[in-house]
Amino acid sequence: MSHSDEKLLLANVSRRGLLKGLAGGSALLLAARWDLGLANEQAQFGAGAMPGGWVDDPNVFIHIDSGGVVTIVNNRAEMGQGIRTSLVMVAADELGADWDRVRARQANADQDKYGNQNTDGSRSMRHWYDPMRRAAAAARLMLEQAAANQWDVPVHEVKTDIHKVVHTATGRELGFGELAKAARELDVPGRDALVLKSASELRFIGKESGLINGELKSAHPKAIDGEDIVTGKAVFGGDVDLEDTLYAVVARPPVYGARVKSVDDSDALKVTGVKKVVRIEGTGQPAAFSPLGGVAVVASNTWAAMEGRRALKIEWDRGPAGDNAGYTSEAYREALEKRAQSPGKVIRQRGDVEAALEKADTRVSATYYMPHMAQAPMEPPVAVVRIRDGKAEAWAPVQNPRATREGIAGVLEMDLENVTVHQTLLGGGFGRKSKPDFVTEAAQVAKAFEGQPVKLQWSREDDIHHAYFHAVSVDHLEAGLDSDGKATSWRHRTLSPSIASLFAPDPKHKAEFELGMGFNTMPFSIPAIRLENPPASAHVRIGWFRSVYNLPHAWAIQSFAHELAQAAGRDHRDYLLELLGPDREVHNLTVGDGWNYGEDPDMYPIDTARMRRVIERATEEAGWGRETGKGRGLGLAFHHSFVSYTAVVFDVEVDDEGELTIHRADIAFDCGPQANPERIRAQMEGSVVMGIGVALKSEVTFEDGVAQQGNFDKYLIPRMPDAPKVVRVHLIDNPDDAMGGVGEPGFPPVAPALCNAIHAATGKRIRRLPVGDQLKA
Amino acid sequence: MVTLDINGEQHELDIPDNMPLLWAIRDVVGLKGTKFGCGIAQCGACTVHMDGVATRSCMTPVSAVKGEIRTIEAMAEDAVGKKVQQAWLDLGVAQCGYCQGGQIMNATALLKKTPEPETQEIVDAMAGNLCRCGTYNRILAAIERAADEETSS
């Protein structure tokens, strides 16, 4: 078998295995999805390998009315990353549309028509940039052809100017609106007939605008939803307002897997406004995207429903929860830390680590802990579902409209074509809303109220108690250094419950896509490497949280690299660059990763030169090496994820009382070509702030299977005083590599960079997150 | 019966006294710009003005409402609110946007009381408004921009 055959085989097997896990583990996911996934998977990478694939038909995405209003369909979830503006802007630029006359329309859930709509993996732009440009170029060509026909001239004599087509020789021109009807009747040109605009012809794509590092140098093209957001008109999930709406909340089992034993709803039904109490069945473990079950209280307004829920007397049967009912996160941490002392399943091996450790002049070892966290988007889960005439209609803030539609069809035993899902804006997602359990739950309740819409609202306590938690993680590293301080061996054991436990009997080991998030893809050039994954079982629903397993992997590896630099008595940046070794492109398969974020490893190798460049840029911009004085220091970390590259430097100060001040963050980012730099900067700024929360504040703990934090008084996330006084974003100009992700890759290196800065300022090494009050006393 | 003055309109509502203003505004009156984020006055997404003072509507029972309630929907007609909204747009503050109505309400109340706040005053005043997307640096910049507009006009 040739090398490239092996690559395709491995990549496909891994993705297929994942899809199978998703489909097989969930009764709610129809076989259709599974078949579709396979049919589109003929040795493809990227967008083409995703269920539903890509679509570039201009008639699907671009509509021009006779008045010249251009409506562009956005098929991805808008959750704050700005895709409704950025993707529509890409099409508008290629089309030649006047931005003031462009509108966006949100696609409802229809993957057969619109292509893949599952908004995760930081891939909306990298998968849809080309199809949207082609769709727009085809629409432009159709407008030009329509004008040429009307003027009876060859099409090559006409060209598109902003929102109009002109015949230069005669000075004639026709607006898009005037041409729309005739253009629509033409055949869509073949892809080989399309000529995309050159960089110099573009007005928006790749152009810097708006606020750049604190300075407003030029206005940015207005955001599609900007005006609606600041005036309170933007429609998020809970803002859908239908006549005769009923309002519901649900009391769910406090422990994952528990069930209702008995309910006394007599007091609940006495609450003014409460209409009915409805038992809903969960589907047990593994939960997949299914509701947890419990008791719904349905009322004439949300408050009455909440009051009614407070009055319920429910006895829970913890039996079906098994071990989960005894899950205590502190004991679990201790158990994982102990297990990390023994070998585990070998994931990647090079040389003889044990022998190299024996021979080392200095041995360094450390264990790092990252707790459970909840995504806690500011908009808690919420959905509206109406069932009538054998059909279901849902309005919901979901990242994965297709899975939502399938989930509803599953619980209502309806055909997919009888289920419509309208995509609202998402008040934040961060992975929580890739799981449509809250929509299928609303469908279960709506079943009892045929003809009436039911709005099911999760409280913040519901959201945090019943999150799909970020996996708790223990990472144990040991390395050997020679007499010059050079690393000669590196052993890393990683232990976390797997997201695969959601879909199938708990595998107790990380799946390939989880290991591929910065664990086996660790880029250091060290002669002896062994990476191991001892077992860890899941006791709560484990799910995607922005950047997913990149978070603990980056946190452990980047903290440990700093510890090695310290042990070697070397400057951290210089030492990191040495660990990286000479510039090279590492093929993912050579490090045992057959996943590579679903992308072609030849297009997207692990490129250590790009790592070096972000490290150099961030440190230069931050003034690395400058004197900081007592109690103040700079810290650095970098990470490669979602086929993009990030490095962060923090400048922090800690006073005698242990009070931390973050003076500045410099984040350097290379995602290859930049579609909308204005929103890329915003994502980097947000990643820095959210990452500060991971480092300093956020933790969900469990006692006897019950989450101990339920709201923002105990589950702490960053507030304005926690933000750095200054955040500087440094985008690497790199139009030549393939386009990478933006929403997630800025996030993983933030926590280790901040903890390394704390060490530089205080000498105190943080190995357990969050920092909390570890700096006090 | 409870009578509420919301954005200059009188609403007679047949609701229990202990219903938080938030749910009266959202579910009964039907104005959706005021958001539910936590229910315990920890996040600020539900912020409205009560006689000009930033107030967490999720913890304010309707029986405790005194004076005029103004919500984000009324800020375009408010001289200061309008400037704050424009500063938000100029600087591209919003990401998901869910918390921003509450942020704007809080910022507007601050600038009405303190037209030229020091940076630290802004940070202190905004500490009760959470943004999970992490837009704090732009929020701060936008408030300073609106304050400049306010004092220069």
Automatic annotation (TrEMBL), chain A:
GO terms for molecular function: oxidoreductase activity. Residues 231-320 form the Aldehyde oxidase/xanthine dehydrogenase a/b hammerhead domain. It comes from the Bacteria. SUPFAM superfamilies: Molybdenum cofactor-binding domain. InterPro entries: Ald_Oxase/Xan_DH_a/b, AldOxase/xan_DH_MoCoBD1, AldOxase/xan_DH_MoCoBD2, AldOxase/xan_DH_Mopterin-bd_sf, N-heterocyclic_Hydroxylase, OxRdtase_Mopterin-bd_su_IorB, TAT_signal. PANTHER family: ALDEHYDE DEHYDROGENASE (PTHR47495), BLR6219 PROTEIN (PTHR47495:SF3). This is Isoquinoline 1-oxidoreductase, beta subunit. It comes from Marinobacter daqiaonensis.
From TrEMBL, chain B:
Transmembrane segments: none annotated. The keyword Iron applies. GO terms for molecular function: 2 iron, 2 sulfur cluster binding; metal ion binding; oxidoreductase activity. InterPro entries: 2Fe-2S-bd (IPR002888), 2Fe-2S-bd_dom_sf (IPR036884), 2Fe-2S_ferredoxin-like_sf (IPR036010), 2Fe-2S_ferredoxin-type (IPR001041), 2Fe2S_fd_BS (IPR006058), Beta-grasp_dom_sf (IPR012675), Diverse_Oxidoreductases (IPR051452). CDD domains: fer2 (cd00207). Keywords: 2Fe-2S, Iron, Iron-sulfur, Metal-binding, Oxidoreductase. It holds the Pfam family Fer2. Residues 1-75 form the 2Fe-2S ferredoxin-type domain. This is Isoquinoline 1-oxidoreductase, alpha subunit.
